[in-house]
Amino acid sequence: MRLSRYYAPTLKESPAEAEVVSHKLLLRAGMIRKLTAGIYTYLPLGLRAINKFSRIVREEMDRAGALETLMPAVQPGDLWKESGRWEHYGKELLRFTDRHDRESCLGPTHEEVVTDLVRHEIRSYRQLPINLFQIQTKFRDEIRPRFGLMRGREFIMKDGYSFDTGDSGADASYMSMYNAYNSIFERVGLKFKSVSADSGSIGGSFSHEFMVLADTGEDTIVTCPDCTYAANLEKAETACPRPVSTSGNAAAASGPNDLDDSGDSPQHTIKTELYVADNAMVAVFLRQDRQCNEVKLKNFLGAVDVRPATPEEEEKAHRDRQNGSTGKVVDKYLADHELLGISDWIAEDDALAERLHHADMDRNARIDAFADLRQACPGDACPQCGAPLVFTRGIEVGHIFKLGLKYSKAMNATFLDENGEQQFMCMGCYGIGISRVIAASIEQNNDDAGIIFPPAIAPFEVMLINLNPHDEEVTKVADFLYETLRKQGTDVLYDDRDERPGVKFNDADLMGFPMQVTLGRKGMDGGMVETKNRRTGEKGRLSLDNFAGEFSAWRDSVWQDWGLKQP
Ligand code: ATP
Ligand code: MG
Which residues line ligand 1 (CB under 6 A)? Predict the structure, then answer.
């Protein structure tokens, strides 16, 4: 491709709207343009990166036996009513009615559609397992679309769904996707980590998120430096410092208090937080400097919905207590297991916490249960090995989840087993944020000059620069190099524009292809082209006489440098 005929409108300045580096650079390098909030056009360069990544995804899905389909973007509301999500999904689901007054929505995900497909097609255990995936445009009316491709309202996702005859098959499908996801992100050349994520009612280790490590990530990853433990913050467990009796109440632990100096420091003060869990009022006792983890609370209670009490609800609970209301103000009292067996606590100045004032938590019969309810903190003991946990930032690029029977039961997706008995299919779902991966790759690899693309997803592998487009002899040789690279099957963008060398070098660095090959009058007279490895900045020379061979060797070394194998 010749840059003179290409459409890659680069910008000198960062547009004011862009906050994070990937958003800035995607705009500046002419890869995307905004249509409206959270909705972007992929320009030719941006689309090439998307397509290169999609190809890797397709190859790995194929290897794992998943079959590509393409499902509709517009979905009937009735299906969402069957699954129960019409009520629960919230405003991210863009709903509308068509001309016949039928309720519809734009698909934010496709569990309903794929379950509907499979329940009408699959009859027998002989047709299972089956794993269907697609690469498709999703719409989620995100409350705060931001950071360009990172959190769009319209974005490209690979979503896949597996259907098995039972639990063990579903676990095997899950593991096969877990392995495929690791291969995909390894092939891209990104530093990433798979972490256990909250799997809600299913429990166990049946949800993993794939996180690209980047300081600008929105997610917190909790890892142990000494063992394999890795979880997202929602899920990260805190070790119980003292034994808990099976009844869930405190055991009479008499272990030493790990807080040596008393006083009214936050570590010695207990606070109360009020939550509403499916209409029940729940009080949670925590150390004042801790944060309640709502996901843990929700899972512990087995609740569908948990939210902090509103100031009005808190006020009312407060008033009712002070008025000595006989009605039950709080339905349940829970305490974080860290409070177990500790006696010298000071309760926060709060009427609800009075019950704990200088109380011995062990013997306080009014705690319904002690449990792991707080957010983990850096330095907490690893739940597996006890080493201090470390926090890092990440960008969620993939999420795999064992769904079990959730959708097949709600939507009656059944098959006949070996005995002719009807059974529900056991499902899993697997997502990758295709467009987000491009942004995440830039967050992880960039410098002041621009993007640094890993060769596997770079829009082009090489930028070939002709420094003297007015010099016929140089241009003839540059054209020849261009043809040589093309014949070799190298993705090359040829900067044949009538521009100053400075402009060309800046654009090449900004677009960030891994290799730059530059030809000018001086080099040509010496029988040489100059090369630059975009990532390391390392410069070199290739002889014009043996260009094809020397380029191939250099290309191999650049891929190797990234730790990547050429496809
Ligand atoms: P997040 O917590 O970031 O909102 P999610 O849990 O809603 O993500 P999933 O429903 O698991 O995401 O979707 C699968 C993948 O799609 C995510 O891992 C992420 O990479 C991508 N994704 C989700 N929402 C967006 C978005 N608004 N813009 C771009 N990519 C997204
Ligand atoms: Mg989301």
Answer: 109, 140, 142, 151-152, 155, 157, 396-399, 431, 433, 435-436
Contacts of 430 (CB under 8 A, 6+ apart): 133, 159, 160, 161, 162, 177, 181, 398, 399, 400, 401
Q: How far is the CA of 399 from the centre of ligand 2 (A)?
A: 11
Residue nearest to atom 21 of ligand 1 (CA): 433
CA of 75 to the centre of ligand 2 (A): 19
For residue 72, what is the enclosing H or E element? none
Distance CA 199, CA 180 (A): 20
- Contact at 8 Å (CB) between 271 and 285? yes
pTM: 0.90
Q: Which residue's CA is the nearest one to ligand 1's atom 12?
A: 399
Q: How far is the CA of 433 from the centre of ligand 1 (A)?
A: 6
Q: What would the pLDDT profile of 9-61 be if each residue is shown by its tens digit?
A: 999 998 998 999 999 999 999 999 999 999 999 999 999 999 999 999 999 99
* Interhelix angle 21-28/434-444, nearest 10 degrees: 100
Q: Which residues does residue 196 pair with via DSSP β-bridges, in sequence order? A: 208, 231
By the 10 Å C-beta count (0-12 exposed, 13-18 middle, 19+ buried), 421 is classed as: exposed
Taking the CA of residue 142 as reference, the ligand 1 atom at the shortest distance is 27
